[in-house]
Every structure is written in structure tokens, then in C-alpha cells.
Amino acid sequence: MKKTGMKLSDVQEVYSGFEGALWELIMGEQIHIGGFASSKALGDSAGWKKDEEVLDLCSAVGGGVRFLTRVYDVKAYGVDATPHMVNRSIERIKAEGFADRIEIKLGDVTDIPYPDAKFDGVWGEDTWCYVEDKAKLIEEAARVLKPGGKIAFTDWLVGPAGMTEEDSARICTTMKFPDMLNLQEYSELLEKNGFEVVESADLTDTMAEHIENYLGQLAGQRHFDAMQLLGWNYDVFNFLGAEFGFMLEKAKSGEFGRGRLVAVKK
Fold it and tell me: What Rg value do the Cα atoms of the chain yield, rounded?
């Protein structure tokens, strides 16, 4: 699909303002579809082992690195390009007593601030859709992984039914994505960079139920909290409701989806 023109600066603005706070309100600190259950399915597929070093690319407020540390007892690292998110992540890591097990850096995931072959694993959860140069991201992930290391991630995708450029551009513009790939395109990028894909799972069939959940929260239990974040601006609230309604329609038709991929560096 064509690029929307969204840049890293647009993403930084989102996650430094009300939109980032709104996503955390309805999705929790694990700002991705499916929360803990999704993370556990991804982590179990990767098979992380105690004391392995795993890097979370686009680590947001650190929900992922804390999950990895608690559940798999790995040494976790994170890289995120938004100072506001990095600062909040570091605060929460310290508050939970993980300062000696988790390291967070401010940086660009297409120019990862770590040396070659440092990590046993690379991790991502529904965030690489924000990255302008996904090919470079995968190339950098391969660079920092040891031979035999694993990359495991979920992402928002063009679904198996395909999507028109117009509809894709509408979703990407609302969400501040530069573009979206599909499962096959991600698999091809992984293979091009020396990975063997061991899992490529289409999760589109669960996308609609999660979007319905978020819409329900905004209209019901979380309405007051959401309106406070939006400054009681119903124009913005109604716009977001309409756009999420459009995403729901596209998810139900299989055009807008999500996937899970796990691959091993040869």
C-alpha cells in the first residue's frame, strides 16, 4: 500500500498527549490487543528461557518488559523513540523493583542503540505498525540478534481479505500509521534478513471483538474518564467513535486484522 506520510514526530505527539493516555485507559499498560493472554501466547511461542536477554522494540510504558521479566525471568531491554513514554517506563520499572533486570533507552528502532549479536530475542507487540521503515527495523533486529536468536511479535495488519488503498489510508491516518503490511509481507522481510519463520498466525478473527470491547468502554464505564482526557470535546469523541466503528466494520469483513509471527535467525 502507499505511504500515508505519517512520521515519527506524529507518533511521538500521539503518545505524549491525550491519545496515548486514551489508549492506555481502555487497553491498560499493555497497550495492545488481548493484553496478558496475547503476551503469554506470544512468549510461549518464542519459548523464552530464564536469564536470556530480550529486547522490546517500541517498548512504550514498559508493560512488555515488565511482563517478560515477571513471567519468563529474562533480562529485558526496551527501546522507544518518545521521551514521555521512556520516562514513564523507567518510573514504573523502578517502582516495581526491576531496575536491576530491565534497561530502557531512548532511541530509534531503525537504528538500534545496541551492538551486533547482543540479544537472545527481539520482541514487539502491536507497535511496529507505527514504524516508517519496517524493512530497516527487521534488518536492525537481525543485526542485534545472536545466531539462533528469535524474533517474536504481533502487529496490526491488512487482513486476509485485503483492503483498498483508500480504506487502508483512512485507518492509518486515524491511527498515525505510515502504512500496514500483511502477514506475507512480514514473512518475506524476515526471510530476506536471514530468518526462518516458524510461526505465522492470522489473528484477524479476534480483532472485531476487541474493537467492540473498546467502543463499549468508551460509551459506558470509561466514558467519564475518556471525556476528561479529551477536555470534554464531543467533536473529538464522536470522530474517534466513527473511526473505530469503521475499523470494526473492516475487521468483521476480514480486511483489517492482526497477526503473530515468530522466526529464528539462521
Answer: 18
